[in-house]
Structures are given as structure tokens and as C-alpha cells.
Amino acid sequence: MSDELNHPDFPVPDELQGAVTVTTLDRIYNWSRRSSVMPMVFGLACCAIEMICAAASRFDISRFGMEVFRATPRQSDLMIVSGTVTKKMVPQIVRLYNQMPEPKYVIAMGACASGGGPFKEGYNVVSGIDKYLPVDVYVPGCPPTPQALLYGLIKLQEKIDKQSISQVPWYQPGGNEAVPIPVLGPDIMDPRQFEMIRRETAVEA
Amino acid sequence: MVAPSKPITQDLTERFPGAVSKDTRPGYEGYIVSANKLTEVATAIRDEYGYEYLASVTGVDYIADGKLEVVYHASKMSGGASLNFKVQAPRDGEPEIPSLVGVWQGADFQEREVYDLYGLRFSGHPDLRRILMWEEFEGWPMRKDWKEVYYEQDAKPFKTRWPEGSVYRIEEKNRFNKNVRYPKGFDPRSFKSDGDEKLYALMRGEHLPEHQRINTDEIIVNMGPQHPSTHGVFRVVVKLDGESVVDLKPVMGYLHRNHEKIGERNTWLMNMPYTDRLDYLSGMGNNHGYALAVEKLIGSKVPERAEYLRVLMVELNRIANHLWAIGFLINDLGAFQTPMLYLAKQRELILDIFEATAGSRMMCNYMRFGGVVRDLPSRIRDEDTLDFITDLVAERLPAALDEIETLLTFNEIIRTRSIGVGVLPAKQAINGSAAGPLLRASGVPYDLRRADPYSIYDRLDFKVCTRPNGDVYDRYLVRIDEMRESIKILKQVLRDMPASGAIMDGESKYTHKVPNGESYGRVENPKGELGYYVVSNGAPNPYRYHVRAPSFINLTMLGDLCKGHKVADIVVILGSIDIVLGEVDR
Fold it and tell me: Omega before B468 cis (within 30°)?
């Protein structure tokens, strides 16, 4: 058993070293989650190619326990938004996110997913996935190298390590609300802004 | 291939007096055809003049003249320059010109794109729906008077980039804090989207008379846009009878990143890094095509060493792309991951060369108008550069190809799954504007490097690889053959490349004076003919910047290829066409 689980406050007697671990619930809960993050097979654009390279032989994402890419959102913990988010695609992305079971994390990989990137001004481009989904880690680059993505994943593991089972939102009452799915109208419409859209367009009329 | 019964030397203007006139605007070439004679003229161009391949269709908005123009480029399969002809329609009202789908199947998606982006209708088009944007989208985005939400100025660099020494996010200036805008008086609560009802109705055959509709247990299934085998955000709507495909329609636009609109705001040079992101597996080739198009207008002379460096990079890129394409084709065939990893290993070594030379693995941004931006570095991965490249080209890649062939070419499962699947006859391949390995696997020896040689390809010894059957297996074999030919080219390049010399025509510049006119630059990219149609009005930014994307046009035939096959074959056929969504949707 790994030494990293041992809690510094509870020393294990010498004769039981390697056989017994005394740890906290948080620590083993987080340790098991961080070591088996399953990302979703979800490629949007150029960054997806670098994501595949990160999973391929040279960079080998499985060193972090993340090689099990799942093709369905219902089995995955992590959504790597790898590429430009377009208005036409964002309803599907939100729908996929809603289908993922808690605990779930989002990595915005690359400039486009983080803030629109070089295509930000485009009429079909969403300026960053964080306009719709909560993002845990932003990985800069266009596209980020596989090394950069791995660094982002390590940062995500650090974030998981800091969570506490008593405070994580998915065990709180009412903590698991779905993100409303945007609607494709004359332009993309966020249901959370319906009132505002109505007010703003009416004022001008 | 329809050979013209007798060679016609008569000029188009004499053949169709009154209907066709020469384009006399300075810097322009080709013909202007009057809309009511278009079908007739196009048929003559195809059958009598021998231009049987419609390379590109695109629109241009000449707002000052109040005209929308559609530009066609047609090519001869025997090679030579392309013929360009245009049709004009008034901008106002509901402009309409005849559709050419009846003459060239390849016009199908391209006309839909012109309709989607310019609002120009094509009468007689069998399925005129928006293709990149969704049906309810407000406005015709590529028109010059249509402004994006984040519009700042007509041309870059924007003056607002650093106002009074501070930066702001443009979202903060938008009321919705998002990249959106709604028409006046719009009420989202009463808005009802019909979704894709129009498309589904078409698939159900509701436009057909009652007696032609067949009511069986056919079901309509969506595959994508989030699907592990669609190579990105691509969607197909399939009508199934049991497990057999009865009808199939591709739906795209999920990665429409507005290259062309952004490209018309950028300065000429600023578009170079954007081209990398079109077909993001072959950035070098994309750079090359754009550089050629603009160099034609500027008239720059590329130094010898730069030409060799370009070809070196482009051919390495071709190998990298085909390795990836084959890896994913095998992936789609069910050999999950392992063969792909073998091929990705070799691709990484090519990416090392790109990274050491251009600074980035995929988005190389390597070429400039009149040359390349950097010379080769002295060392790559602690080895002498030329030793590294020579070793890769002469030893590693041939060995890797032999390994692939041993493992895959005579593999029983691969042969059973791919031989006779997705057959594209040569005639349809030409008529449908198929390009690249898709066209050559159907037995058509058309490769722009030979048909209309650019750069130094006329000096290089290589053969155009074809295969006769036009099925998935032949497309795989053509890619293997092409990699071997690329290795042959690379060996010649390494042998003949001048050891030193200039790599730029004159000084490297940020702004270029591009004379008025139009230009169509095309290269044989790994996916097929990549063309750039650019129009300059003398401003620092292009007036029109259009990409003729091979992946996009190759999809025109996808429905026909898949009909009659099983669902599992769709992904294989799609994999064998080798699309990249960045280029399909742009």
C-alpha cells in the first residue's frame, strides 16, 4: 500500500509498516478519485489531436490513472473541452455535462475553450466554455502541448486532493442542479437570460 | 471520363454570344456568364471544353456595385490551369441564380454554403437548407454589411486593442456578457424552434407524392455530433432499415469558426496562422496554399532554398497526415488504439522536426509570402538536423511502412471489412468533385503536383498513385503508396537542397501591398485539392478570402457511398474519406 496515504498525525508502528495504513476518510476518498479520473472521449477541434497525443505512447496519460477514456458521459468524471466551442455545439456540450454523474470536473483546454482564442470575434463562436459551464482548470496554449495538458491534469489532481467529503457540493442537499440547456434561436439563447433578452429587445423596439 | 467529341478552340464568348463576356476588371480573369444561360454554358464547359471537374464554388459580396457574385473554378482532368467563370446577381431583394447540381454533383454542398452565408438562392437545388449555421439563425453572415457582435472595425489591427494603456474584455461591452445579439422585439418565451424537423421530413420523404413514400419500419437515427467515431463534431442523420443504411445526410457546422469572416478583417499576413487551424493535421500544406495564392497577386519570387524547405515540410506533413488517417481508419475498423499507437509514434518524430523548426508541433505558421520564416535549426533532439531528417526519411519511415504493411495490408479482418465497401466509381468521383486519395483510389490519376505543377514539383521524380477499385481498401493502399512516394520526394529534396541561401524574397514584412485583383492558389494537400480564392481591393486586408476545403467537398458523396451498407460501415467509409472537422466547417 502506498505511503502517501499515511496520515502524519497517526504513526504506524514499525512492525506494521507496509501492511497497515492509518488514514483519514478524506484522504482515501480523494486518493482513489484522483488516481482514477476517467475523461470523456470528447474532441472538439485541434486541441483534441493533442489530447490524443497525450494519451498515445510518448506522453502516456495512464501514468496518472487517466487512460480510461469513456465514450459515454455517464461513466466519466472529467470533461476535457478540447477546442473551439461554437454556438451550434454548445447545447450538446451542456447536455453532455448534465449527463455526467457527480463528482464531475471540467478542463478548458486551449485558448478557444478558455476564452474564445483566435476565433473569439467569430459570429458562431462562444467566447469560452465558462460562459455556460463551471471550469476547474484552464490550460493555455494554441493548442497546448501534451505536456501542458498533463500539467493541467496534475493541477486538477491537486484540486481533488484539497476537497473534503463533508463539504463537497454533490453531497449537500440541492447541490446537483442541471445547467439549463441553451436554445438555438436567432442567436444562441441561455435560458437563464430569457428575461433579460426580452427586456433588452423590448427597450429598443 | 467524357472526352470532348471534338476539341473546341472557339472562345466561350464566341460560342455563346451575348450570354458570356470576358471579365475585364483589372486583375481579374475568366468570364462573366449571364444567369439565365448558366446551366447551358456550364454544360458546354463540361462536355465540349473538357472541364469536367468543378473545383470550387464561392460567393463574393461586391457591396459597392450592389451585386453578389458567384465564382466557379473548373478544371480539366488532363491538367492545366483552371477555368474561372462568374455569375452576378443583384444584392437586394431575394437574389436567385440557377443551381448547377444537375451539371456537377460537387456543387451541392458548396451552393448550400453560398446560400447559408450570402443568402443567395439557387433555383433547382434539391436540398437548399443552411449548412453551417442553423436554420433560425438571423442574417447572412458573410455579407459585407452584416456585422458580428464583437465587431470593432472593418480591418485589423484594431485601434481599440490597448486604449489608453489598459485592456478590456469585449464581453463587458455587450449587454448579455456573451457573444450574442437578438433582433428587436424578440421574445424568447414565444420562440419555438422546429429543430431539424425540415431535415427529418426530407428524410421521411414527405416531399414525395404519396404513392412513392414507403411506409416500412425504417427509423431515423442521429449519429453525432458527439460520437467517438466521427473524427470530431460531425453528425450524420441516417435512415435505417434494420441495420442497412437507406439514406444518409451529413450535418455540419458544429465547428464553424468563421475563418472567412475573420479572414476578411485580418491583414493578409495575419491569416497565415489561421490557415494552420483549418486542416489541423496538415498545417504546412495549408500555409503553402495560402502563400501561393497571395504570391500570385504580389508576384514574389521564392528563393531556391525556401522552395526546397517548403516541399520538405509539406511532404513530411503528408506522411504525418496519412499515418494519422490510417491509424484512425484502423481504429474505426475495430482495432482500437494499438495500431494507431504504432503510427502515432512515427508521427511524433515528424512533429519534432516541425517543433524544432517552426516552434510548434501542429500550428507551424511556417510560410510567408515569398519564402519561409525560419531556416532549419542546427540540432533536433541532440542530433544534427540533417542527420535526424535523413535517418527518419531513409531508415525509420520506410521500416515503419513495411511494418504497417506486414501487419495490416493482408490482414484478413481488414480485407473483409474494407474490400468492396463504399465504392466510388471514377465518373461520380469526378462529377462530385472528390479530391485527393478519394479521387485517386477511384482510378483517376489527378494530382495537382503533376496536373498543375507548383513550387518545384515539376523537377521532382514521383508518380501519381492510383488504384482501380475505389473502395475503402484502395483508399488505404493509395495512402500507403503516397507515403512511399513522399519518401522518394524527400530523398530528392535532401539530395538537391542548396546548403545555404536566402529563405525570403527580400525582407520579411508585416504588411504587404497586394495589388487589385483575384487569385486562386491551390495545392495538393494530403486530403485533396486545397484552394484559396482571394480578392484584393488594394487594402491591407483581403476583400474576400475563401477556402476550397477538400474534406468538406469530399463529404458530398458520403450519402451515396454509404447507401446499402451497414451502420458499422458508415464509420469506416467516413474514416477512409479522412475528414478533418476544422476544414469541413472552417
Answer: no
Same domain as B117, residue B263: no
CB–CB contact A189 B233 (8 Å): no
Is the pTM here over 0.95, yes or no? no
Kindly report, residue by residue over B206-227, the tens digit of the pLDDT. 777 776 666 667 788 888 788 7
Name the closest residue on chain B to residue A60, using Cα atoms: B341
In A, which residues are within 8 Å of B266 by CB distance?
Answer: none
For B147, nearest residue in chain A (alpha carbons): A123
- Point out the residue among A88, A89, A183 whose CB comes nearest to the CB of B193: A183
Q: What is the CATH number of the domain that holds B378?
A: 1.10.645.10
Q: Which domain holds residue B34?
A: 12-123
- The B residues from 98 to 157 touching A (CB cutoff 8 Å) are 132-134, 136-138, 141, 148-152
pLDDT, tens digit, for every residue of B61-116? 988 888 899 999 999 888 888 888 999 998 888 888 999 998 898 899 999 999 99
Which of B96, B123, B150 is where one domain is finished? B123
Gap between the Cα atoms of B267 and A41, Å rounded: 37
CA distance B445 to A111: 41
In whole angstroms, give the CA distance from residue B143 to residue B66: 11
Say which residue the cell 467517438 belongs to: B228
CATH code (residue B119): 3.30.460.80
ipTM of model: 0.86
Interchain CB contact of B581 with A (< 8 Å): yes
How many domains is chain B built from? Answer: 2
In A129-168, the residues whose Cβ lies within 8 Å of chain B are: 131, 142-143, 145
Angle, helices B338-358/A46-55, rounded to nearest 10 degrees: 120
Q: Which residues of B touch A71 (CB under 8 A)?
A: 228
Domain boundary, last residue among B62, B91, B123: B123
Identify the DSSP state of B91: S
The strand pair at B83-90 and B31-33 is best described as: parallel
Please check whether residue B144 lies inside any domain of the structure: no
Residue B207 is assigned to a structural domain of this protein: no
Look up residue B226 and give its amino acid.
Q
Q: For residue B198, tell me if it sits in a domain.
A: no
Please identify every stretch of chain A with a pLDDT value under 70, giving residue numbers as ranges.
1-3, 175, 203-205
pLDDT digits (tens, 9 = 90+) for A156-172: 999 998 888 888 888 88
Q: Peptide bond before A143: cis, by omega within 30 degrees of 0?
A: yes
B185-211 pLDDT per residue, tens: 788 888 887 778 888 888 877 777 776
Mean pLDDT of chain B: 87
Question: pLDDT class for B12, splitting at 50, 70, 90?
Answer: confident
Q: How many CA atoms lie within 13 A of B506 on its CB side?
A: 9
Does some domain include residue B72? yes
Instruction: Enter the C-alpha cell of residue A71.
Output: 465514450
Closest CA to B486 of B400, B423, B548: B400
- For residue B83, which phi and psi values (nearest 5 degrees)? -100, 130
> What distance lies between CA B32 and its chain's CA centroid?
25
Radius of gyration of chain A (CA): 20
A119 to B258: CB separation less than 8 angstroms, yes or no: yes
Residue B478 confidence (pLDDT) above 90: yes
